[in-house]
Amino acid sequence: MMGEVKKVAIYPCGGVGFVLSSVARYAAYLITEDLLPGKTEIVDAQRLINGLPDEVELVEENPTIIVDGCGYQCGSNLFRLLGLKPAARLLIPPIAKLPATFLCDCAGLKKQVRLAPGTQRRVPSESGKNLATEVAVRAKNIADGMLEPNYWYEPQRVRQGEVDICVYVNNIPEEVGYVMISEGVDQPDSMPRLDWLE
Fold this sequence. Notes:
Elements: E1 3-4, E2 8-12, H1 19-35, E3 40-42, H2 45-49, H3 53-61, E4 64-68, H4 74-81, E5 88-91, H5 92-96, E6 101-104, E7 110-113, H6 126-146, E8 152-153, H7 172-176, E9 178-182, E10 185-188
Parallel strand pairs: 2-3, 2-4, 4-5
Antiparallel strand pairs: 1-8, 5-10, 6-7, 9-10
């Protein structure tokens, strides 16, 4: 049964050893702690894969924004394997290639910055934090629209039984049915349209 959205799940890239995965996770913390606290929640992949009821309920009952950090697109692949469709997906590499932009940081200051992942993995460098902020602001704009009364989400169900979480496909966008909304922002063609972004 379709219903009004009260919370948006955020699933950031979980890659180990990749700078962009740190940028994705930093962006997820920015949106859940600073930009939309209480209205967004980070998905814990390990709890989801292990079938913990609260984590399964989070992704079944709420739209999810996936933040894929690189071309492997593991977040999108995990949801595909679990039989779930994200409501939207942010892919960081195209966003990182955008020209210098006026970036609205979490303190409300605007400054022109170059978007780049930086070189630090454990904690993003200043340029990595700028990129993470841009990603978080884009995620917030998507989530804001999903939290409006005219956006309706139909709950999904995680595929039950044996799921091989290591089966990777080369063409994630085709497998998931992604259509591009804007540079670095996609959504499955079967999900409610993100009209406010077009």
